[in-house]
Design a protein that fits this description.
Number of strands: 19
Bound molecules: NADPH dihydro-nicotinamide-adenine-dinucleotide phosphate
Largest sheet: 7 strands, mixed
Helix content: 10-25%
Number of helices: 7
Oligomer: single chain
Strand content: 25-35%
Radius of gyration: 22 Å
Distance between the termini: 35 Å
Length: 321
């Protein structure tokens, strides 16, 4: 076999709670898992400060620490963790078939089973001024970047739980947070709505969208538009946070795996099975409803168990009932 090809029993793409949990189970079942981390090693939790709702951490744990511990736990049982990004896939339709995955447009992996745990990424509005100023004051992660705007005025777009949570976080660091909500109501849970409404330095602007992000090299302000009256207004801010939801990282699987209209991979029944034999999906890439670390970890476990059963079946079909 050429140096640029490698056979792998269980290949896992993605290194969030789903990928690492799949690795822990796969390694303990002697499936010799190899994880490729993707662009954001550790996944979305590395952009979170405190995780307070993962069972077993009564005092909470910070996201990056939790991900390092998950990696260590996976490595303890023999998982190989590698930095790299899947850039192309050729999935087999045959039971027992080999799935080819190209890493970084270079090396080709031949996977007997493939676990997809590539997660989801933050969405942006798509305005040219927003894209131009990404990294210059436009961010999709308040917890990562809020610190840079200490004592300054910022704005956040979105009316869901993420926007509400991030607005509340920013209100502790920044002098004022303007929350731009395109509808006349928040989508966030009642508890989060009550929280943001009770914080004096958060101003919620309903029926409001962004017309343009102002500034040359860095964000200096916003031109907002009232979508009921068409009236425009400019405000001075130095940071703009986008919190309008996520998009599943499934582009490379399009045309090969069944997906819903928004690009989430469809799994079968209560399993993590996709429409290709030996290919399993877990975590946020196949879940737009729950999207929690603990549910991602749960489906990661399921994917490893499904992969183990699948391999047993294709290796000795007569022994499996
Ligand atoms: P959501 O999809 O729930 O909310 C997205 C928000 O962004 C909505 O208010 C939506 O408006 C708005 N929006 C979408 N596109 C645009 C746009 N182009 N311009 C302006 N506004 C836009 O995403 P979240 O990330 O907030 O939450 C995702 C899931 O995670 C939810 O199920 C949530 O409950 C959960 N979550 C739970 C948390 C917790 O329990 N602690 C914390 C964070 C998230 P509209 O309402 O008009 O569609």
């Amino acid at each position: 076999m050429s140096e640029n090809r490698e056979r792998i029993k269980t290949l896992i793409l993605g290194s969030g709670p789903a990928g690492y949990t799949a690795a822990i189970y796969a390694a303990r079942a002697d499936l010799h898992p190899v994880i490729y981390t993707g662009m954001e090693p550790g996944g979305q939790l590395t952009t979170t400060t405190e995780v307070e709702n993962f069972p077993g951490y009564p005092e909470g744990v910070d996201g990056p620490t939790m991900m390092v511990q998950l990696q260590q736990q996976a490595e303890r049982f023999g998982t190989q963790v590698r930095i790299g990004m899947a850039t192309e896939v050729r999935l087999s339709d045959e039971p027992g078939g080999i799935h080819e995955v190209v890493i970084d447009n270079d090396k080709t992996l031949e996977a007997e089973t493939l676990v997809i745990a590539t997660g989801a990424s933050a969405k942006y509005l798509g305005l040219p001024s927003e894209q131009r100023l990404r990294g210059g004051g436009v961010s999709a992660c308040a917890v990562c970047d809020g610190f840079f705007y200490k004592g300054q005025e910022v704005a956040i777009v979105g009316g869901g739980d993420t926007a509400a949570e991030e607005a509340s976080y920013l209100s502790k660091i920044c002098s004022k947070v303007t929350m731009l909500v395109r509808k006349d109501q928040l989508r966030a849970s009642k508890a989060m709505q009550n929280r943001v409404m009770s914080i004096p330095n958060i101003e919620i602007r309903f029926n409001t969208e962004i017309d343009e992000v102002l500034g040359g090299q860095v964000v200096e302000g916003l031109r907002m538009v009232d979508n009921q009256t068409g009236e425009k207004e400019e405000i001075a801010i130095t940071g703009l946070f986008i919190a309008i939801g996520h998009k599943p990282n499934t582009d490379i699987f399009k045309g090969q795996l069944d997906m819903d209209p928004t690009g989430y991979i469809q799994t079968r029944g209560k399993s993590t099975k996709t429409n290709k034999p030996g290919v399993f999906a877990c975590g946020d890439v196949q879940d737009k409803d729950y999207r929690q670390a603990v549910t991602a970890a749960g489906t990661g476990c399921m994917a490893a168990l499904d992969a183990e059963r699948y391999l047993a079946e294709v290796e000795s079909p007569q022994e499996v009932g």
